Amino acid sequence: MSDTPAPDLLTDQLDEAVLAVPGVDALYSAAPLVATVIASVIATTVEAVTGRPRVTSSVYVAEKKTGLEIAVKIGVTLPYAATDVSRRVHDAITERLDQTGNPAVAEIAVTVARID
Amino acid sequence: MISSDELSGHTFEELSDYLDRGRTPADPSIDSSPECQTALSGMQRLRRTHRALLRRDVQRESEREESWVSSILQHINLEARAGRDIPISHPSPTARLSVTEGAVRGILRAAGDNVPGIIVGRCRLDGDVANLGAPITVRVDATVMEGENIPALADQLREALYSALHQHTELSVAAVDITIRDLYQSAAPRRRK
Question: What are the CA-CA distances from residue B122 to residues B42, B77, B162, B191 (Å)?
Answer without folding.
Answer: 12, 11, 16, 36
